[in-house]
Amino acid sequence: MSGRIEVLIVTGMSGAGKSVAMQSLEDLGYYCVDNLPPALIPKFVELVSQSSGQLHRLALACDLRGGDLFQPLVDTVHQLRSHSGLQLQVAFLDADDEALVRRYKETRRRHPFEDGARLLDSIQAERQALQKVREESDVIMDTSQWRPSRLKQELAQRFAPQQRLLPVHIVSFGFKYGIPIDADMVFDVRFLPNPHYIEQLRPLSGEDEPVYDYVLQWPATREFLQRAEGLIDFLIPQFIEEGKSHLVIAVGCTGGRHRSVAVSRHFLDHIREKADAHLIHRDSERGG
């Protein structure tokens, strides 16, 4: 086996959040496979090791939906731990009986151990069946009181400590062409003095210094930037805390060529150290 591969096995109680966990790990850069029979894990890891380093972080979900195929998981974990070229962790997602009962009643899904039994009895039978796997786990996460965003945050802290900054796309646009459909925040800067009515500025855009300087010279612009950028500075950590994976900030003026472009440039300079910031001028070339 060539190279060092990180393997995270996600298991635990049905209803404790494995589906959310796998979606979150995929967002964190893991290659995810759900419900893989444990006996196939070593062969799959061997196959990945031959991918020339294209895949090096795997998240594999295993649970009792596999029936008898789930039983070799403990032996598989012991086998994988003996590999020197492999970094293995097992995360066990748990929740108390009350939380699991509530979640099953809300989703109306059938418990894999149900088979005509009472739901609470099925949960307790599953808990007993998973006891050995729980004892072998490196991390046990009790999700009883967690929202999905909290689970995603905990996974990021434990398994992606070098997580990238929040991707933020700043999009300048013209209201006459419509608001970007993927915008999370929209700032309307049509109240600012319009360079379109200055003959020598009209052919230029907010990317040109004369237009940029013209837009930023006004007290209203400076106060707006101070207030808007203060709001953005406050919201970015809140969005990260909530588990947001990307943010689109749209800045609009009438035609999307002068004021919105200049203000978007200033936003970019302000937040580029706080986020993975990108600048897009959607409409600046229209009618230019």
Characterise this structure.
The structure is a single chain. This protein has 288 residues and is of the alpha/beta class. The protein has 2 domains: 5-159, Rossmann fold, CATH 3.40.50; 167-281, no CATH class. The protein contains 10 helices and 9 strands. It has helices spanning 18-27, 41-49, 73-81, 97-107, 119-129, 131-136, 148-159, 209-216, 219-242, 259-271; strands spanning 5-12, 31-34, 57-61, 86-94, 139-142, 167-174, 185-188, 247-253, 276-281. The strands form 2 sheets. It has a 5-stranded parallel β-sheet, with helices on both faces. A 4-stranded parallel β-sheet has the order 7-8-6-9, with helices on one face.
Descriptors for this entry?
alpha/beta, five-stranded parallel β-sheet, 2 domains, 19% strand, Rossmann fold, elongated, 288 residues, four-stranded parallel β-sheet
Number of DSSP strand runs = 9
- Mean pLDDT rating: 87
N-C termini distance:
57 Å
CATH class identity of the largest domain: Alpha Beta
Q: Tell me the series of helices and strands, N- to C-terminal.
A: EHEHEHEHHHEHEEHHEHE
CATH hierarchy: architecture of the largest domain: 3-Layer(aba) Sandwich
Counting helices, strands and paired strands, the structural category is: alpha/beta
Q: Residue ranges: pLDDT <50 for 5 or more in a row?
A: none
Number of domains: 2
CATH fold label of the largest domain: Rossmann fold
Q: What best-fitting shape do the alpha-carbon axes yield?
A: elongated
Read across the widest sheet, the strand sequence of neighbours is 2-3-1-4-5
Largest sheet, strands/sense/barrel: 5 strands, parallel
- What would you give as the CATH superfamily of the largest domain? P-loop containing nucleotide triphosphate hydrolases
Count of helical stretches: 10
